[in-house]
Design a protein that fits this description.
mainly beta, OB fold (Dihydrolipoamide Acetyltransferase, E2P), Ribosomal protein L2, domain 3, 7-stranded antiparallel β-sheet, 1 helix, 15 strands
């Protein structure tokens, strides 16, 4: 992983920090694993704006990612590490022994020509996917399932990882990136290692136009709106706007919105840090 700080030849480049992309091996994706990706621009089927601050942006093609890793017992060779415009992490192209190709979320340290595997016979090495019941305690894991067979839903973004803390009966105890400690069925799958591109959080875009390329339009602050538009709007000059709250009046910054009767509450041992 490397970062490059650009010289201030223009105002937009002055503070810009970019990824060196030194771990990538190709810039041409596998055509058989591409799908079209349509943009709504925040409009519904009638053409009316239902989401603000969305629109524009560069055209993208979706890379079909294998989050389930369900080709058990078949070894695969890493053919390339690639950039994916749809996520912060890098992706790896796997070529399985039976001839099939699939993309996976790349783990940090994954190398070209490395062999990875999933299922019962896999060893707890970087890039391999096993059930939580087979992973040694204390191991750093990512791309974790919440339900068996569902596919990875936790710790999938750049630099994310969780830790396997303990096992007790049917459940394993996982410490998640947020700081939350929770129980997950030991039959769920997880991948060994930290998700790639951990330097993503250190990047600096440098200019507003870069957000526009990503499809993000300028966001109006609530405090500068009129009273009719937002609970925090109105007032003379730069007034504080009252208590921080959403457009619908729901308080922010500490107000708990999680249901007290949610079924999965019993699986949370320790809530995330505030």
């Amino acid at each position: 992983m490397s970062l490059r700080k650009l010289k201030p030849v223009t105002p937009g480049q002055r503070f810009r920090v970019v990824n060196g992309f030194d771990s990538l091996t190709t810039d041409k994706p596998e055509k058989s694993l591409l799908a079209s990706k349509k943009r709504s621009g925040g409009r519904n089927s009638e053409g009316k704006m239902t989401m603000r601050y969305l629109g524009g942006g560069h055209k993208k093609r979706y890379r079909i990612i294998d989050f389930k890793r369900n080709k058990n017992g078949i070894p695969a060779t890493v053919k390339s590490i690639e950039y994916d415009p749809n996520r912060t992490a890098f992706i790896a192209l796997l070529a399985y022994a039976d001839g099939e190709k699939r993309y996976i979320v790349a783990q940090q340290g994954l190398k070209i020509d490395q062999t990875v595997m999933s299922g019962e016979g896999a060893t707890p090495d970087i890039g391999n996917t096993l059930t939580l019941s087979k992973i040694p305690l204390g191991t750093t894991i990512s791309c974790i399932e919440l339900k068996p067979g569902q596919g990875a839903v936790l710790a999938r973004s750049a630099g994310a990882f969780a830790q396997l803390m303990a096992r007790d009966g049917r459940y394993a105890t996982i410490k998640l990136p947020s700081g939350e400690t929770r129980l997950i069925l030991a039959t769920c799958m997880a991948t060994i290692g930290v998700v790639s591109n951990s330097d993503h959080q250190l990047l600096v875009s440098g200019k507003a136009g870069r957000s526009r390329w990503l499809g993000r339009r300028p966001r109006t602050r609530a405090v500068v709106m009129n009273p009719v538009d937002h609970p925090m709007g109105g007032g003379e000059g730069k007034s504080s706007g009252g208590h921080p709250r959403s457009r619908n009046g729901i308080p922010a910054k500490g107000y708990k919105t999680r249901s007290k009767t949610k079924a999965s509450n019993k699986h949370i041992i320790e809530r995330r840090k505030k």
